[in-house]
Amino acid sequence: MKIIISEKLKKRINYKDLCSEFSVGSESNYFCRSVESALKNTQSHVGKSSINFFHGVMRNGVSPINPHGRGPFRVMKLDSYNPEHIKRMDQLKNLKTILDKYNVCSKLRVSVENEIEKLDMKGLSMVVDENGEYSFLNKLDGHYSGKAYILTKLFIRNKLNFVKETDSNGNLKIVTGKLVDFFKDPNNQILVANEIADLIRNDEEFDVRLTQGMLATVEEGNKIETLIKDHLRKKGYELIDFSSDFGYVDYLGIDGVVIIDGVVKPYQISKSLKNKKIFKYHDNDCDVLHYTFDGKKVKIIKVD
Question: How far is CA 269 from its chain centroid?
Answer without folding.
Answer: 14
